[in-house]
Design goal:
- The protein contains 2 helices and 8 strands, in the order E-H-E-E-E-E-H-E-E-E.
- The strands form 2 sheets. A 4-stranded mixed sheet has the order 1-4-3-2, with helices on one face. The chain has a 4-stranded mixed sheet with strand order 5-8-7-6, with helices on one face.
- The longest helix is centred in the first third of the chain and has 11 residues.
Length: 136
């Protein structure tokens, strides 16, 4: 028998309620506080499921890391043509750009730090695969 599972990315920070409000607004989702006052879930209508946990000894991550290794980060997919608007929204909510190269086009990816210092990126949503079958 297969046990039902789901996955949730959990971000640690010092100010968990404020960070939960940031992501709830950015992702058009709802922040939900459960029985554990140090844990807030962010749940949205389009499959968003993220959690924020208070860590009293939290130290923000650095970006990029000195040894240039890839860190785990949240990738937020944005509709084609809406990247500039998504960027203004993220910065208006408190995000800080950490990689400011001008990508543009179908492979546009922009990297930010959230208010607690976690890295996340806005990336153009990939075009759906063509549903056209082989020609007969």
């Amino acid at each position: 028998m297969t046990v039902g599972k789901t996955s949730v990315l959990v971000l640690d920070c010092a100010e968990h309620v404020e960070l939960a409000e940031f992501y709830a607004a950015l992702l058009n989702a709802e922040a939900r506080v459960g029985n554990d006052p140090d844990f807030v879930e962010i749940v949205g209508h389009s499959g968003v499921h993220l959690a924020i946990r208070r860590d009293h000894g939290y130290a923000p991550p650095s970006w990029p890391r000195p040894e240039d290794s890839q860190q785990a980060h949240l990738r937020i997919l944005v509709d084609r043509g809406a990247m500039d608007e998504a960027e203004r929204e993220a910065i208006g909510l408190g995000a800080r750009p950490v990689e400011t190269k001008d990508n543009g086009g179908p492979h546009d990816v922009r990297v930010y730090a959230d208010p607690a210092g976690h890295s996340f990126s806005l990336a153009v949503r990939p075009a759906p695969p063509s549903s056209a079958g082989p020609a007969s």
